Amino acid sequence: MYDIIGDIHGHAAHLEALLDQLGYRRDGAGYAHDDRQAVFVGDFIDRGPAIRQALAIVRAMVDSGAALATMGNHEFNALAYHTPAPGRPGEFLRAHNDKNTHQHAATLKQIEGAERADMLAWFRTLPLWLDLGGVRVVHACWDPAGIETLDAGLGRHGGVSDGFMAEATCQGTDLFNAVEHVLKGPEAPLPAGMTYDDKDGHARRRSRVRWFLDPVGLTFGQYALPALELVDDQPAGMVSAVELYPASAPPVFFGHYWMTGDPKLMSPNAACVDYSVAKGGPLCAYRWQGETELRNDRFVTVSIAKE
User: Fold this and answer.
1) DSSP string covering 122-156, please?
2) Per the domain annotation, does 307 fall within a domain?
3) Does 105 share its domain with 139?
4) Coiled-coil segments, which residues (predicted)?
5) What digits encode the pLDDT tens for the residues 206-238?
6) Is 111 in a helix, a strand, or coil?
7) Is the domain of 283 the same as that of 215?
8) C-beta of residue 186 within 8 angstroms of C-beta of residue 210
């Protein structure tokens, strides 16, 4: 059985408290459980005060077999930020502009030199999704077409190599679009002239959407993730480029979306475990017991006043 754990973002004390609450015991640098396995949905770095410690716990658990882990968009972005752009001396696959550097600043400050190189090398070993038979785990969106494209790209480039990263960060390629969906979530344009401010105060003209729900009968605002009241008078039928996750498919777990409030299911077979620990929310897990229809009482959270 699996305990699926949400975005950590360098909050090691929250992670330790959550693992304690879930019944894991200290095992060297990590934790272990007698009959359960943790599964991390990615986004281990950036924002938080204890990135080194959080990574040490996750890596030790993965190395010992006590946990599995997928890559988050922050790990992908870190690889792009530190990978030189071919044919463009002095430039990198992810631009070193103010916005990108600010997002990555906590990691840049806390992890340097050989330790940073080791961290990045480990990121390259992380799977971009996990299909565990009765349950699926991905950072942002289970997109079958995108996963097929990523699988082909990984095979073509020999894994998450510099060549893979170069193609995956080249806007307009199929591999770029697959990463955008699987690690960052599908988006739809807002009606003309409309914008909203995201969690970091940036104006956005596109909204992430609820790819696990049928948009028929919903407004655009209800189909947006998070919900957007400013477009509650627009039909969600205008969204056409998102493949619906079938109700008959295995349960799927993901992070990424900065949810707030008490954890609850997104649909009977879809659950988000990111409840904004990096913005003062709890660290969240779901204790999966093998059920095909998920239950709200399986969520477990921990909150710490200050880390």
Assistant:
1) HHTTS-SEEE-SS-EEESS---HHHHHHHHHHHHH
2) no
3) yes
4) none
5) 788 999 988 888 888 888 888 877 666 676 655
6) coil
7) no
8) no
